[in-house]
Amino acid sequence: MGYDLVAGANALIRSDEVAIRVHANNGGSVTFAVAVLPIPTGAEPWLPLQDGPPAYAEGAGSGIEFSLRLPRFGDAVQTVALVLYSSAASTTLKPLRDVSIDVGENNIRLEPEDLTVPSLVFAELYRRNGQWKVRAKKDGVFDGIEELGRRLGVRVTDRRREEPTRHAPPPRPESGNGPSRAGRGAHADWTGSGSMVADRFLITNAHVVNDAHEIVVSGFSGKTRAEPVVVDSTNDLALLRLSESFGPSRIAFRDAGVHLGETAHAIGYPLAGLLGSGPQFTSGSVSNLLGPGNDARLMQITSPIQPGSSGGPVFDDCGNLIAVVTATLSNAQNVNFAIRSALVLPLLDAASIDYRRGDKDRPMTISEMVRANSPFVWRVECFG
Question: Among the listed ranges 54-63, 185-194, 286-295, which one has the minimum average pLDDT value?
Fold first, then answer.
């Protein structure tokens, strides 16, 4: 007898071979498949969008309809995660409609709100006392299949992942005393934003500065080179050291927790070269206290952001920094994500950097908040 399984429910698997079949209306033409991640790694993971089937799925014609031969996983494998995932070109599974997945005799249905991520564990096969069972799940991550594998303890290499556009390295002057590429007035290959949290130190995203051969930051006080001191790719944060001193920062970190519905003010340098050279301000609210897949590192905000906003600060109505902008869903309206400021503090502590703490007792007008913090929000220019 089969069951319609809700998240957390489980059922017995009655055969050594389990058929997997995805039913979906692919209204947005997103490329997708079911990845198979054995845990621990006694067998190789299978990413159908890039690899042919392994022995445990031998003969499978696609990653949408296939069978798993459970005895071929071997005794070391106790759990097998089944992941609905999209190609690297898609940041979300949301174009799919009416998604249900057969796992043997059982069916798991996914709702539209479950599909706002590019990778989602919808079920796990697990072994207890020599018997295999299936449990329905709804655990997704916004960062893709590689990050999901890391959290499960499985090394996953997505060779289809789109690499950032690589640019030829800047011409090197014959003399070490020659001007840098940035110093010659060249345009940056890509840009982001950042917060000067202490004299000579700035916080931005790891994805902003990764692969940069040269970094230049600029703000109200001037322009200088910068170099990464700590890069935390797991939490998408980077601490940069500026080559020159511009005095202490007045940015303060929020001491208390953030609440649903609070105001969220973002300042940054989006669409550099199109919207003008100064910082841009947008305002919204905290619309969810968790990120995709209930990721507690993130919060969801409605403050509009654009390319170039990444790494910029999010402030509360007292002018305290509560988060760092990291990502947006391109196919949704004002669904944006920011990294909680509590994750910034360990980086500053590791570098022995003093920082200011604020409270929620002194609300400011919006114009006061912008005037107080804008001088410490800098544009980050990266040269590949």
Answer: 185-194
pLDDT in tens, 38-94: 998 778 899 998 889 999 998 888 889 999 999 999 888 999 999 999 876 666 788
Distance CA 204, CA 193 (A): 6
Q: Helix, strand, coil % (nearest 5) of the chain?
A: 15, 40, 45
For residue 92, CA distances in Å to 139, 209, 299 come to 14, 24, 17
Cα-flanking dihedrals φ and ψ of residue 87, to 5°?
Answer: -70, 165
252-377: CATH topology is Thrombin, subunit H (2.40.10)
Q: Where in the chain is the domain with CATH 2.60.60.30?
A: 4-152
Q: How far apart are CA 196 and CA 215, in angstroms?
A: 15
pLDDT in tens, 345-371: 989 988 899 999 887 778 899 999 999
Return the number of other C-beta atoms located less than 10 Å from residue 198's C-beta.
Answer: 18
CATH architecture of the domain formed by 4-152: Sandwich (2.60)
Q: Are 118 and 161 in contact (CB under 8 A)?
A: no
Q: How far is CA 42 from CA 74, 78, 94, 127, 154, in A?
A: 7, 9, 32, 14, 10
CATH 2.40.10.10 in the chain, residue ranges: 252-377
- CA dist 202 and 245 (Å) reads 12
Q: Check whether 222 has a pLDDT greater than 80.
A: yes
